[in-house]
Specification:
There is one protein chain. By secondary structure, the protein is an alpha/beta fold. Among the domains are: 56 residues; 214 residues, Rossmann fold (3-Layer(aba) Sandwich), CATH 3.40.50.300. 39% of the residues lie in helices and 19% in strands. The protein has 17 helices and 18 strands. The longest helix has 37 residues.
């Protein structure tokens, strides 16, 4: 892959400014940078979805495999089984039919070079799918990704997390020359993530992966491409994510020293120019030197490097506008099932006390998101009830981000009568939106930026019960920490589904509910009191596909 002089603007705002980089055919590249730096956009350019203002990316003869952040399975696949959906990534039968058709044409026109070339191209494509190991490779991926119990299930019956795993399995099975993976670990359990990391590390082609998981990047990658949102430049580093962070920290420290020295010199020149401007007309030598220094000052100012933005949190009142009762919500004997499915819950009961930070964990498809939807009333239980105290007010963050208006700006989406415009801008700064950023339309934001807006909007509602469904799926480690601190300071009650131990720790979880898998014979662990980071990691390990 060779990228030369990439430039792209959204309106007057640059995303890439004359960026170039080069990678070898077997490189495993971590693509990193803050939300909004252009990571997902780079993938869209490679795929031909987005067009550059200037520059080009050369991918000689590479077949592309793509896993987007937001998995959307086409409705036409609703009745296709999981096995059929994954197997279709290598359309060998269809290609073989085309090849047979070309051979029939060749029999009629034996001297046709065009037909001969099509035959050679089709045969090369079929060979690239490794037909001899078709079933073996498919079975290995299905088993290692813990999908064997789903292979006969129609795609329409899968949960969001299950669909994401199946889509990932399909991309791996495709055996493309270049894999583009955008946040691939969002819905992976511990065991599956380990398999995928090893699979990608030994993959025969090139891999470009955007991930907020440093451990995953360290395992998989040998190169790192950093997209700098401040300078709109890119830089390729040798080594994995940890090696990149070390090199980048050294470069940044050196840059800070250099900028400090530049600023000191500029200040000295400014003081000299000011003296020259105030000098008596008779002091022609000083005035002449002042003119020289003015030109020098202009040059120095134009050469002054841009200092990386440092994040500073602003103290704001994010307390609930009114206090809930001592028990803001109680779940009593909840039972629920989807059509033609076994019950997800039977007589599930628990209650929360005011101010708790409560975590729900469990396998893909076990019903974590469903439980949240039952609590907020988007679904109705078969039996049992959800009881709120009289003063309980609820704010709900869903993975689908339905609470945002795509046509409005960031600021319009989060405006609240509880805050002045200045306070609202300070709140948005706590979610990494500064200056003119607040005037961007939601429709132009990356998934990570949209998630930050939605979480900010949740806090500004000042509800006393906040319900969060996988709030960190699109966040890099630094952003996770910042968002976690915002919710740590919130003194209402939180119910959260999250697969991210670091974020859970940053928020300050006090108890967790582990939803058991009856199908796999796992024990009903239930409520875990006196939560600790070690306990959570133990339960992730004990239930290898908990997320």
């Amino acid at each position: 892959m060779k990228a030369e002089h990439l430039s792209l603007h959204f309106g007057a705002t640059p995303l890439y400014d004359d960026c170039s980089f080069h990678f070898e055919d077997t490189d495993k590249v971590g693509v990193v940078g803050v939300n909004g730096a252009g990571k997902s956009t780079l993938f869209k350019i490679i795929l031909g979805i987005e067009k550059l203002d200037e520059g080009k990316i050369e991918l000689p003869g590479m077949r592309l495999g793509y896993l987007p952040q937001e998995i959307k399975i086409n409705k036409s696949h609703d009745d296709v089984t999981v096995w059929q959906y994954i197997a279709a990534a290598r359309p060998v039968d269809e290609l073989q039919e085309q090849l047979n058709g070309e051979y029939e044409k060749l029999a009629k026109y034996p001297d046709s070079k065009a037909i001969t070339q099509r035959i050679m191209d089709l045969q090369d494509l079929i060979d690239s799918y490794d037909v001899a190991n078709f079933d073996y490779e498919l079975l290995k991926i299905v088993e290692k990704m813990n999908l064997q119990d789903l292979i006969d299930s129609p795609m329409k019956n899968l949960s969001g997390g299950q669909k994401s795993k199946v889509a990932f399995a399909r991309v791996l099975f495709e055996n493309a020359g270049l894999l583009l993976l955008d946040e691939p670990t969002n819905h992976l359990d511990v065991e599956t993530k380990e398999f995928v990391a090893n699979y990608l590390r030994n993959y025969r082609g090139m891999v470009l992966v955007i991930s907020h998981d440093p451990e995953f990047l360290d395992t998989v990658t040998n190169k790192t491409l950093f997209l700098n949102k401040t300078t709109h430049k890119t830089k390729a580093y040798n080594g994995n994510y940890t090696a990149f962070r070390r090199q980048y920290a050294e470069e940044k420290a050196e840059q800070d020293r250099r900028i400090t020295e530049q600023e000191r010199e500029i200040k000295r020149i400014e003081e000299f120019v000011e003296r020259a401007r105030n000098a008596k007309r008779s002091n022609t030598a000083l005035i002449r030197q002042g003119h020289v220094r003015e030109k020098m000052l202009d040059r120095k100012l134009s050469e002054l490097e841009v200092r990386e933005e440092e994040y500073q949190r602003v103290a704001l009142n994010v307390s609930p506008s009114k206090q809930s009762g001592k028990t803001p919500v109680e779940v009593q004997n909840l039972t629920f099932h989807y059509d033609d499915k076994a019950p997800l819950f039977e007589k599930l009961s628990f209650m929360l006390t005011r101010g708790e930070k409560f975590l729900i964990v469990g396998e893909n498809g076990i019903g974590k998101s469903t439980l949240l939807k039952l609590i907020v009333g988007q679904l109705k239980p078969d039996d049992g009830s959800v009881i709120f105290s009289q003063n309980t007010t609820v704010a709900y963050y869903a993975q689908e981000l339905e609470i945002l208006n795509e046509r409005e700006t960031i600021l319009d989406n989060v405006k609240s009568y509880d805050y002045t415009d200045t306070e609202m801008r300070s709140m948005l700064a706590n979610f990494l939106f500064r200056g003119d950023d607040v005037n961007k339309k939601i429709s132009v934001l990356s998934p990570g930026e949209k998630a930050r807006v939605a979480l900010c909007k949740i806090l500004t509602k000042r509800a006393n019960l906040i319900i969060l469904d996988e709030p960190t799926n699109h966040f890099d480690p630094e952003t996770q920490k910042i968002i976690g601190e915002n919710f740590r300071d919130y003194d209402g009650t939180v119910i959260m589904v999250s697969h991210n131990p670091s974020f859970v720790e940053q928020v300050g979880i006090t108890r967790m509910l582990v939803l058991p898998s009856h199908e796999h014979g796992k024990p009903a662990i239930g409520i875990v009191k006196n939560y600790s980071r070690e306990q959570l990691e133990y339960y992730y390990y004990l239930n290898s596909d908990l997320i």
